[in-house]
Specification:
Layout (H helix, E strand, L loop, with lengths): L3 E4 L7 E4 L6 H10 L8 E4 L10 H5 L7 E3 L3 H8 L1 H5 L5 H9 L3 H9 L2 H15 L5 E4 L6 E3 L9 H8 L4 H6 L5 H8 L2 H8 L12 E4 L8 E3 L2 E3 L12 E6 L3 E8 L3 E8 L4 E2 L3 E4 L3
Parallel strand pairs: 1-5, 2-3, 3-4, 6-7, 7-9
Antiparallel strand pairs: 2-10, 5-6, 8-9, 10-11, 11-12, 12-13, 12-14
């Protein structure tokens, strides 16, 4: 199996693309209820970073057991993978523990300190089994209506070129060792493109061979569009004013909705194929 996952078009229900979760499963479930989500017909696809920072990292990671939930890997999942052996052997150095704290992985350090050997072995095996399922790119559908998902950014402006390079590496090999291709760093940690766009909002940055590309990784005040790319990380785990959770309902138009923690709701609509702005809708969320 490779680090690319292909999903067929969802003909029976809806697809929702969501920003970085960071342990925010309860918030996701609350918002999905507002959209009358059907686990039988609908699907959710996340741009990665399921764990750390938020209140329920393990529960959020366990969403991967649900048949309706999919995600690419984020840099937070990769960080754990790079500490695989010392975690499995329960031999973290002080520097490695500090790294986990820096990434907001206190939830895992708490288990590391509290569980007995058998329970720790079961937990860390479960965590790595779930993480090792994650691809680095997801494509939904085929042809002109296909959409792509990546955590941070694509190194090349042609979707198929990125796929061709990625498919050279087996998924199991990637999750068990450090890759020797700079492509992987870009997919998980790249910020150059969004920084350019933030400095120059009129800059277009289209990706050929795909209709839309969705990313996260960099927290933004509101979803940012450039060409056919959308960045969706609005800081779901951060309860402070100005942060929130962004969800995209995929259709003939894209409905991009951010639920802010201060109870504002903001929706933008984009026409597929043409990537044009539609009027912005603002509303207040009561409760």
């Amino acid at each position: 199996m490779t680090l690319f996952k292909q999903l067929l078009e969802n003909r029976s229900g809806r697809d929702f693309i969501i920003g970085d979760l960071h342990g925010s499963r309860p918030l996701l479930e609350k918002i999905l209820q507002k959209h009358d989500f059907s686990p039988v017909q609908d699907r959710v696809i996340c741009v990665g970073d399921l764990i750390n920072r938020g209140d329920d990292s393990l529960g959020t990671l366990r969403l991967l057991e649900e048949p309706w939930f999919f995600s690419v890997a984020g840099n937070h999942e990769r960080m754990l993978a790079e500490l695989r052996q010392p975690l499995i052997e329960r031999k973290l150095s002080d520097a490695q523990q500090n790294q986990l704290e820096l990434y907001g992985a206190q939830w895992l350090l708490d288990y590391y300190e509290e569980l007995n050997e058998d329970k720790w072995a079961d937990l860390i095996t479960e965590v790595f089994n779930l993480i090792s399922q994650l691809p680095l790119l997801i494509q939904v559908g085929n042809g002109p209506d296909a959409i792509g998902v990546v955590h941070a950014q694509l190194p090349m402006r042609n979707w198929d070129q990125n796929l061709a390079r990625l498919e050279r590496v087996k998924k199991l090999a990637y999750w068990q060792r450090v890759p020797d291709d700079s492509l992987f760093d870009c997919l998980l940690t790249g910020r150059e493109i969004i920084r350019q766009i933030q400095k120059n909002p009129d800059k277009e940055h289209a990706v050929a061979g795909i209709d839309w590309v969705f990313s996260g990784h960099t927290i933004v005040e509101r979803p940012i569009r450039a060409g056919n790319q959308l960045w969706l990380d609005t800081g779901a785990y951060n309860k402070e004013q100005g942060h929130g959770f962004t969800l995209v309902e995929v259709g003939k138009t894209l409905a991009v909705t951010t639920y802010f923690h201060d109870l504002r709701v903001r929706t933008e609509r984009f026409v597929r194929h043409q990537h044009r702005f539609q009027p912005v809708l603002d509303a207040s969320l009561n409760g």
